[in-house]
Amino acid sequence: MNSFIRRFVGDKEFYKRVFAIVIPITIQSGITNFVNLLDNLMVGQVGTVPMSGVAIINQLIFVFNLCIFGGLSGAGIFGSQYWGKRNHEGLRNVFRMKVLIALFVSLVGILVFLIFDDNLIMWYLKGEGNSAEINALTLQYAKEYLSVSIWGLLPFALIQIYVSSLRETEETVLPMKAGIAAVVVNLVFNYLLIFGNFGFPELGVKGAAIATVLSRFVELAIVLIWTYMHTSKFPYFIGAFRHFRIPTELFTGILKKGTPLLANEALWSMGIAAQLQCYSLRGLEVVAAMNISNTINNLFNIAFISMGNAVAIIIGMRLGANEIEEAKDEDRKLIALSIVLAASVAIIEIALSSLFPLLYKTEPEVRAYASQFIIISASFMPMAAFLHASYFTIRSGGKTIVTFLFDSAFMWVVTIPLAKVLANYTSMPIQPLYICVLAADVIKCIVGFVMLKKGVWIQNIVDKKEEVK
What we know:
The longest helix has 38 residues, at 48-85. The chain has 16 helices and no strands. By secondary structure, it is an all-alpha fold.
């Protein structure tokens, strides 16, 4: 029994180090998602159709956001390992690579939204019982929201360049503070611009979009000002823009590791969007209910999502320092902690599931669906925690092809076809359909467990690139 506890439970110093990373990220994510909840509630007060239009655009922007995360993640693997070696020139080159990747992804994303906006939105408006009038109104609200939101894409990308670099070098407090300031701005201007309070114009969904874009610029300004006032602590930012001559081996290495991650995040987020489209075939009420459920779930999911960041940082540093046995031991304990946290939070979410939908000004049917979706999703949270920690473990060693196959390839080969078949060729109600789709991840859990057990993720990738010192 004692040996079992030692394998899965760390000592006081271990948890002190873990929570020093996790708590600031959790606070930032918690406040961000809480304000997203309030944002969602405020738009929901305008009506179900405007809320559905905003939900569709947010789902599409979610794809863009994850493409940014994925594009930067490949470079981030090198960043964490270089930090483990305290190689500042390597970190500087990683930062330069991030700038190039983020600008490219932003340009592509903006062009896609500008050219294919109607087609992307109409993809979600083919559900049972949707009238032409409701579809037209939803399209109108969605386009109105997108026309403003698109201005926030580039500042979001720039924020992620700096925040990801700071987190990889164990600075998690500044991103938390900047995130808090941003969500306060978002919340205040939502209140002023959605409803026209204190003499401001009543702009509805467009007001919500303006508030979000303003918050992006505020967050970016705080991050930039603080970063360049503390370059003595993070010298790799000094001279980062003098040139973009990145060593060839590092450039190709990041592309080799990063391209599968970018493709993975793009395909995974598009897979989530495709799943929502399958669910939308059961009616626009399901889209609205999923929007409510996902907003609530995102608030509770930070329990294990923040742990994924801890896995990436701590295990990446251990691997970069060639501390292999320590990496294996700490990874096992991090995964165990993530599952326990997720299970505890899931119990709370299920207990409160019937209360959250009551906050929305929407139809009883939508509220009932939302409550059921919250319970279903929370029930699968411990499994999601294991998968999330497994993904970041495998990624920390640079096994990005493996993570691609483990994550998005599985989604498009197994999960999406299952959702499409059940949605299009059966009359199965949405609740069991949703359960079946989530339950398919049991297969991933088995595969992930085997890969972790075999240690396929154990790899130091920066020792091969000593010329960047």
